[in-house]
Amino acid sequence: MLRLKYFGAVAEKTKVQEENIPFSNSSLQELVDALEQKYDLASLSYSIAVNQKLVQDKNSYMLISNDVVALLPPFAGG
């Protein structure tokens, strides 16, 4: 099982703040592709964190069962 958390515009678009989905052995990119198709997220800008750590290379990051994946709004500097 994977736990997904949505913040900002992504949460507004999905109409949920979090959900659990069955785990399938896949890369983070495969998950993101499925979510973008399911919720039409391609027009949004967001960062992705897995277990509270930002991930830059979605293609090579392999998910494991019980990961928490967060889709975060763009960060503003200060």
Give an overview of the whole structure.
With 78 residues, the protein is of the alpha+beta class. It has one domain: Ubiquitin-like (UB roll). It contains 2 helices and 5 strands, in the order βαβαβββ. The chain has helices at residues 8-14, 28-39; strands at residues 2-6, 18-21, 47-50, 53-54, 68-72. It has a 5-stranded mixed beta sheet with strand order 2-1-5-3-4. A hairpin with a 2-residue loop joins strand 3 and strand 4 (53-54). The longest helix has 12 residues, at 28-39. It starts with a strand and ends in a 6-residue tail after the last strand. 9% of the residues are buried. The mean pLDDT is 93.
Q: For the largest beta sheet, what order do the strands appear in spatially?
A: 2-1-5-3-4
Q: Which consecutive residue ranges, at least 5 long each, have pLDDT under 50? A: none
Query: Termini distance?
Result: 36 Å
- Name of the level-1 CATH class: Alpha Beta
Structural class: alpha+beta
Mass-distribution shape: globular
Assembly of the depicted chains: single chain
Strand content: 25-35%
